[in-house]
Amino acid sequence: MSPRVLLASCAELPDSDGDDTPLPGVLAEVGVKAEWVPWDAISEPADLVVLRATWDYPHRRDEFLAWCDSVPQLANRADLVRWNTDKAYMADLAETGLRVVPTELVPPGVELAAYETEIALKPSVGAGSQGAGRFLPAERERAMAHVAALHAQGRTVVLQPYQPAVDEEGETALVFFGGRYSHAFVKGPMLPRGTVEMSALFVEERLRPTVPDGARRTLAEDALDAACELRGVERSELLYARVDVLTGTDGAPLLLELAEPSLGFRQADPGAPLRFASAVRAELARR
């Protein structure tokens, strides 16, 4: 009997967000039966449950994490999901010596401190740039209002200095399957001044394929190694991972985020979905 894999989505996007809709067909080519199911509608056991388009988790994180804990065959592991769905993990990675975008947490009840350069503000639990905005020093009043709005929802705010190179270069997302590099793509600037999207599941991305340079590859590899050491996991146990890097003010790459739902299949070479399918087969064999 073919192994059964469930690709977890959400009620708003039951058949994925469009990026990896073809995965069931690709998996079928290598003898794996797969289907899309919203995560909160999964009730039957499967050989593997893969988190793919669970974009509604930021507003339902406690419920989502409780569900993750209840799924023994979850990829990636539930404790990794708990750690990586709160951007407080950036502080953990910074302590390892990795170059990261300087990150400050502003929890509810704490006022936004004065700032002298342009900043980005985003919820610490969030994905797809939802609830994120950029603010100049002269826009402190607007920035404080945004922080207050997030605090009113009970959400901690992440403050980071805005990296202006993003306006020209965007961010480079490097994707790994089973701990091995697969492909990369570039995301265009996501945070226009004066606009903060608070209601959509995610902000529409402008993407294009790319071949990352050695510095970005090195940083992404180091990020995976650091995360795995922190969480006590082997790289091969990560069915998928995504590391986003950008150019800092000194011209060197900085780690921005590790692992988000979209894996950029539409910007990748035709072999990328097959590499993912092979990683799924390897994960099934490992378990």
Write the layout of secondary structure elements.
Layout: E1 4-9, H1 23-29, E2 33-38, E3 48-51, H2 61-70, E4 74-75, H3 78-84, H4 89-95, E5 104-106, E6 119-123, E7 133-135, H5 140-152, E8 157-161, H6 166-169, E9 171-177, E10 180-187, E11 207-209, H7 214-231, E12 240-247, E13 253-258, H8 272-286
Parallel strand pairs: 1-2, 1-3, 3-4
Antiparallel strand pairs: 5-8, 6-7, 6-8, 9-10, 9-12, 10-11, 12-13
Description of the structure:
The protein is of the alpha+beta class and 287 residues long. It folds into three domains: 4-84, Rossmann fold (3-Layer(aba) Sandwich), CATH 3.40.50; 89-98 and 165-270, D-amino Acid Aminotransferase, Chain A, domain 1, CATH 3.30.470.20; 104-161. It is 28% helix and 23% strand. The chain has helices at 23-29, 61-70, 78-84, 89-95, 140-152, 166-169, 214-231, 272-286, and strands spanning 4-9, 33-38, 48-51, 74-75, 104-106, 119-123, 133-135, 157-161, 171-177, 180-187, 207-209, 240-247, 253-258. The protein has a five-stranded antiparallel beta sheet. A four-stranded parallel beta sheet has the order 2-1-3-4, with helices on one face. Helix 1 links the parallel strand 1 and strand 2 (33-38). The longest helix is centred in the C-terminal third of the chain and has 18 residues, at 214-231. The model has no long low-confidence stretch (mean pLDDT 90). Keywords: ATP-binding, Ligase, Nucleotide-binding. InterPro entries: ATP-grasp (IPR011761), DcsG_Biosynth_Enzyme (IPR053191). GO terms for molecular function: ligase activity.
